Amino acid sequence: MATGTSRVDPGPQDVAQIIRLICAIERRDALSQEEREVLASTISSIRAVPAGTVLVRAHQTINESTLLLEGFVARQYDQPTGQREITALHLPGDFLDLHSLTLKELDHDVVALTPARVASAPHECLRRVTETHPHLTRLLWFLTTVDAAMHRQWIAVLGQAAAGRVAHLLCELQARLALVGLANEHEYALPLTQMDLADMTGLTSVHVNRTLRKLRESNLADVRGGQVKIPDIHALRGFAEFDPAYLYMRRQPS
Amino acid sequence: MATGTSRVDPGPQDVAQIIRLICAIERRDALSQEEREVLASTISSIRAVPAGTVLVRAHQTINESTLLLEGFVARQYDQPTGQREITALHLPGDFLDLHSLTLKELDHDVVALTPARVASAPHECLRRVTETHPHLTRLLWFLTTVDAAMHRQWIAVLGQAAAGRVAHLLCELQARLALVGLANEHEYALPLTQMDLADMTGLTSVHVNRTLRKLRESNLADVRGGQVKIPDIHALRGFAEFDPAYLYMRRQPS
DNA sequence: CGCAACTTTGAGTGAATTCAAGTATTGTGG
DNA sequence: CCACAATACTTGAATTCACTCAAAGTTGCG
After folding, report:
1. What is the pLDDT of residue A2?
2. Cα A61 from Cα B181, distance rounded (Å)
3. Residues with Cβ within 8 Å of residue B34, at least 6 apart in sequence
4. To the nearest whole angstrom, how far is the Cα of A75 from the nearest Cα of chain B?
5. N-terminal to C-terminal alpha carbon distance within chain A
6. What is the pLDDT of residues B59-100, one digit of tens each?
7. B52 CA to C30 C1', in Å?
8. Which residues touch A213 (CB under 8 Å, ≥6 apart)?
9. What is the pTM of this model?
10. Is the CB of A227 under 7 A from strand C?
């Protein structure tokens, strides 16, 4: 699938990282010690891939889901006209392609936008979990419905003007990265090109550039050199009409 | 919740209709006789509502999912500016708010765009199913992931120009309505206003009107009087670059 | 150091919007 | 059955937002 990358069994630090990310998932819902172990045991090999790697090719049968350990991964449609539409962005801690448990094939590519490290969870193992652990199953199901909620939000945001779209995206990334400790209230690393941002917001890279300048001039957000700086997160959220409720980051009463 | 509508236990024709719609669901995956009965047994009362009824209000706790028997239902965000964004359209046979099993609250409204008839499936019953029937659970999960796949497609389509968006929507509705016998290759009833279509495609009603005229003049689709006529479905699909794969309408090998 | 990829800025174009007015179409009470 | 209101649809004109095309400036990497 991936060329030139080798799969490795998880080392001690890998396991520690996996556990840490599972803890992030646990912010969504409490797990018993046994459930935590069962979930961790579904994850087998780990691989590191360079930027641009196609993790899942459209119309290809999928046999495993993936826990993203490091890097940024996009779901993208490549139109015959050459233009690219990014419909979702995955961050470290995201469980990718969990929906592939029920949808064996996708009509789009899943691509690493930056160098990334991913851990695979074979469907075989996950399938077994769904047959023996109803509560864990509901958690996995929950994660896929949160993805759907993000999709809906993106659709709604695409109705706004350019500045609103970009600002909303910056807010969403701040909130999601903060969940896994990769952002604070004032800044975070965003190693994406303006072209990437353009394909996520449905704009051209030229217009994204102008929009970022406007946001900088109005002191709402400073995006430069792969770093996002936010002087006042509440001001930015107000401008973008961002309400993090749709991310369901608080613990769900199960 | 709904004003002036009364809930009624399903009558004989209702049961027949429910069974028919479950059969449509079965095009997705085979069910055993027992599973079919268990699924049907989760559905209790039925109610008819007039156009404009808010079936689920944003930020309200949800205690039941819904099988849509008749009518068109939209998921919509009402922006403070007064503008409305429709992120999904539900058709007869759709199982609504299945995701509310894991997401107790939504940030948007669910509204009947036309008079509608809905049957409710209490979470309590569905929850019990998820704890005893792994295969049925996977089918329900599957239905929510198909919703997510449709959302992704909508996001991608919003990157196209107006004519493409409208044409794609017409194609999607034709395919989905055909699944439940409400469309054939050449026409179907679409009792929505141009304003509704505008809020689904992210356009203004004025521009939807102009776009529909263009589609009519180029002989791709004739939308008038609540009726959609398609001289050549392949031509329209080609123009819209519509590929029904994302609807996952063929049976999934479980 | 030099190439490649990305970013920035300018000028002109075009698609979709807003504003505005007028025409069906539908439903309702007299 | 008609007059009237309300809603939906249609068309025109002017404007705006975002795009395309083009070129210069940066940055990073081999």
Report:
1. 40
2. 30
3. none
4. 9
5. 38
6. 999 999 999 999 999 999 998 888 999 999 999 999 999 999
7. 29
8. none
9. 0.94
10. no
